């Protein structure tokens, strides 16, 4: 092929010399016409190969079942390959056309060579983009940080490409160039610090399965609270529930603390853990008449009968003086209310009865006694979960007064006597 190219671009100079032109004039005229011929031929080659490659790839994409070739068409891989063929033709032709112009031969040869390297990297990039899109269509890869791995590969390829470009541009041997780059590696590490940290973190995130695309994460430091929509080498993008987007450095996932709700979403229930504060001064023993009134509450009527019988038998057997309520065993309004809440939770249809469910008393505080509900709702969707939790506590707060208890509230100016 090289011989045919040489014949195309060398026959003009002898013709001009036969016509009586000087060596210099013949060289410039033949150069001008050769450049025109080169441009025309390169364009014709580009058009022909673009038509052939794009058509062939489109036909293959239509006839095959796989989506990968369709994605190659979408990413215009064939179009970029069609650019490469006339460039190779130009690269081979430049030394022949500029044979009598050594300086320009070296300059344009390097320029075309650099363009070819960049174009090859761009073609590889389109192939990797097609591969990324193809893998994301597969359920097993849809939540994997594929972008991070592709970016790492492309960084390595660009590093190799830049090395080749520099060696061509300055006529430096690639081994010598790598030696020089090794000497300035500290500066390179400083410049690409975030990229290197991101790469290491991406590997850790993937190997340890810390975060997947689609996970709901919470990271207070960055104000992130929503679903992960993208994981790449430098950043993790989170679409918050208020439809804003938070960008988190990838290395922060391995260096800082964050909360991943995937375990909850994959479990059988979403936890409800909330308490109310009962005024300490409203907690007391219950009298006989009050117990009889509370028996009307059907959820605890049997419990009151059973517990009252046990307590009376114990007090009688031990000859307890019940003229003072503190003596012996007694029922308190808080204890009975706690039992009522427990029974209410077990009868609430939206809670998972197979998971932990209780109403417990926490350590007393200066604001009163915390009474906490700990249970799990079947429905884990945010809006339904919030409705279930609110419905439960609406009932609990409204039920407090039936047990002669009070909920702690900070006093306002209007509550103080004036």
From TrEMBL:
InterPro entries: LSM_dom_sf, MscS_beta-dom_sf, MscS_channel_2nd, YbdG. Keywords: Membrane, Transmembrane, Transmembrane helix. One of its GO terms (biological process) is cellular response to osmotic stress. Gene3D superfamilies: 1.10.287.1260, 2.30.30.60. It holds the Pfam family MS_channel_2nd. The chain crosses the membrane at residues 31-60, 107-128, 148-170, 177-200. Its main location: membrane. One of its GO terms (molecular function) is mechanosensitive monoatomic ion channel activity. The keyword Membrane applies. Residues 194-262 form the Mechanosensitive ion channel MscS domain. One of its GO terms (cellular component) is plasma membrane. It is found in: Membrane. PANTHER family: MINICONDUCTANCE MECHANOSENSITIVE CHANNEL YBDG (PTHR30414). This is Miniconductance mechanosensitive channel. It comes from Flavobacterium sinopsychrotolerans.
